[in-house]
Amino acid sequence: MSTLNVLCGICSEFYTNTDKIYVTRCGHVFHQQCLFHWLQVSHTCPQCRDGCLRHQCRRIYLNFEPLREDELKCEDTSEISNKLSGYEWIAVDWEMDDELLKTFAFHFGTDENGNNIYCARGFHKGDIIPAYYSPSKRGVLAPWGFKSHLLTHNIEILDISCDGAAEYKWVHASNGDLPENALATGHTSYGEPLYTARAEHNGNLLYGKLHRQYKMAYVPYGDEELCKSQYEVLVRISKLQNSPSN
Question: Which of 3.90.1150.10, 2.60.40.10, 3.30.230.10, 3.30.40.10 would CATH assign to domain 1-66?
Fold first, then answer.
């Protein structure tokens, strides 16, 4: 059995070629069983104590074969760092309650019943539809085909916990106009981008999609899909572009 001269930071055992090894979003590596047991107790990285959730950890495969001398070169890690920052879409885990969601998801506000809702998207009829996730309903409400659909499978939540370099805002637009820095959060089956939008109806803010081809925002309401010519679009603005130049 091959081993590496590298220790797991939790159990202090060397990694072997039969181990399942996972990396956190902050880049620290542990045995799967050690890390997942830790995360049942604490939502922090065991090594640096940065925020860490189980769904943000990824399995990695280590090379246990010796490298040639010409392969032992330092690589630019900036690309890796970029991949470990920013926003991402993650599959819904039914263990995600409000307390956990508030640590990483983009919080929209509340629905008409006062339940918390979060930025999400769902896969339906070939489309990836901007929508909102309701933990109380255990699904996303998505507008499609003149109806409101409760989707409970193939749904994702927007994770912004590592996106400190950007700011999220709502910007008003109308009649199919798209604000600068609008965040594309879905697309149609034929590849047209869709955007997260919200619009007012009977005093309530409803969350759905902007479909520019039809110059309307579409939002779920009851069992229906409502169309709105006046709406707000979710934009993502890099803090770097707002900072003064040197």
Answer: 3.30.40.10
10-residue averages of pLDDT along the chain (246 residues):
74 88 88 90 85 81 65 46 66 84 93 93 94 93 95 92 90 97 94 96 95 95 96 93 56
Cα separations (Å) of 199 from 75, 115, 166, 209?
48, 18, 23, 10
Domain ranges within the chain, ordered by starting residue: 1-66, 84-238
In angstroms, the CA 8 to CA 131 distance is 40
pTM score, whole prediction: 0.69
Query: Which alpha helices (DSSP H) does the chain contain, by range?
Result: 32-39, 78-83, 98-101, 239-242
Q: Helix (H, G, I), strand (E, B), or coil: what is residue 151?
A: strand
Query: Residue 244's pLDDT is what?
Result: 56
Residue whose structure tokens are 């918390």: 116
State the pLDDT at residue 245: 53
240, with CB counted inside 10 A (0-12, 13-18, 19+), is exposed
Cβ(126)–Cβ(154) below 8 Å: no
